[in-house]
Each structure stands twice: as C-alpha cells, then as structure tokens.
Amino acid sequence: MNQKELIIALAQTNMPNKVLKAEMFKFHNSMVGKSKYMRKIENPETSCGSCIQRVLKNVMSWYHYDDSAPSYDEIEFTGKLGLHNKPMYKLK
Hints:
Order of helices and strands: HHHEE
Helix content: 40-55%
Radius of gyration: 12 Å
C-alpha cells in the first residue's frame, strides 16, 4: 500500500482493520523524527484502542496541518474535527 492509498483509506475510517492498522503504524514509525506530529515509535502489535486512535490522529494531523505533506484531490476536509481532534475527511 502506498502513501496515497493509506491516507485515503484512513480518511474513511474511525478504526482501521488489521491490514490498514499495520500499514498505518509502519508509516507512522517511519515518520518519527521527520515530523512534529510523530514524536515516538509506537508498538504496531498493540490492541489498545487509545493507542491506535493516537496514531491515526497523528497521521491525519500530519496530512492536514503539515505543509510538506501531499494533498490528494480524492478526499476533502469536512470542516470538522472528530475524536481527539482528528481532522475529518470524506471522499469527493
């Protein structure tokens, strides 16, 4: 799964499935030290819902707020913040 597919898939979910969760943690951990939104390595084997939500929020915050992040035309910001102030997106 490439970065674009990951971001678009994450924009459509509140709780990722096993495959998406693994890809999300892989991306998050690869960005530690490169982005202020990803501050520490997270355990991809966790089943803690709060930990998963924190990683999801970090990835979506990076996409939404970081100027160096790409922008994809397939999704658009709804103008709302969700759980843990995660920017909410929807498919166009």
